[in-house]
Amino acid sequence: MKPEDVVEARRASGVDERWQGSRTTKLMRRVLRVLRLEGPMDLHLLGNLRDEGWGLSYRTRRSVDGKGRPIPWYTYACKDFLERRLRRDLRVFEYGCGNSTLWLARFVGEVVAVEHHPGWAEEVGRSAPDNVRIVRADEGDDYVTAIDGEGKFDVVVVDGLDRGRCALHAVASLSEGGVLVWDDSAWQEFRETWPGLESQGFRELDFSGLGPISRDKSRTSILYRDGNCLGI
User: Fold this and answer.
1) pTM of this prediction?
2) Going by DSSP bridges, is the β-strand pair 91-95/110-115 parallel, antiparallel, or unpaired?
3) Pair 61, 79: CB distance under 8 Å
4) What pLDDT, in 10s, does the model give residues 114-132?
5) What CA–CA distance (Å, rounded) separates 98 from 63?
6) Distance CA 20, CA 190 (A)
7) How far is residue 101's CA from residue 128's CA, in Å, rounded to a whole number?
8) CA–CA dist 173, 175 (Å, integer)
């Protein structure tokens, strides 16, 4: 790429040219290079992390994108994958509500979420659109079985309490092409539960990498069978 092409690309990205060319900035860059901080600063100002909104999410401790809109606390790769495949004719059940609930509501027809914390359920509910319903249930059996009697769901998100029990119990409430989305699937609880799900024909598509807020690598997995609603 020619130097003038680089400049044009930076202009198109909306990056302040002063970060690239002023004398002060060049001096700052030399200092940052010595301190081994030039790369992180470039990622924050120029790279994909800026577009994803990682800096904003880290500062506010909220799972949001670069425009401040709610997104799930999944890995970015899994979020991007789901955005391309979720549809308005799908129903979703979530174990644990949050910004993921508000994000899902933008792409699917209905979201039902169970939440054990009254204050958090109320806070999320205040921002929720009409296609979201939050169910309150205490920890234990009431929480695990909150999905019962709600009909069939195309996607069940396992992202709250007692994830192993919830995942195994929710299988009976999946539609014919239903899938499970298990966040933080690198945790021991997933490894302990996976044999029981695998024996029922599920396969794992995992997305490892960075997500909002955290600086550490994590993993979100989609558990699917043949003929699933996401076309995997």
Assistant:
1) 0.81
2) parallel
3) no
4) 999 999 999 999 999 999 9
5) 9
6) 45
7) 8
8) 7
